[in-house]
Amino acid sequence: VSWRKPPSNVYILNIDGNIRMLTQSAATGGLIRDEHGSWLAGLLCKIGSANSLHAELWD
Fold first, then answer.
1. In terms of CB atoms within 10 Å, which of 6, 8, 39, 49 comes out highest?
2. What is the pTM of this model?
3. pLDDT at 41 over 60
């Protein structure tokens, strides 16, 4: 997996979900980068009890 530079004045949003199998607790998060790859903003959301499909779809 690699990062490709977007056109000028374009932002890239990357999101993903995850789950802790032992506790079935899930979260989702993401980040926004500019055309230079600089981090602009991020987010994290605990979504409670879920399976891996729900964690990915929450994105």
1. 6
2. 0.65
3. yes
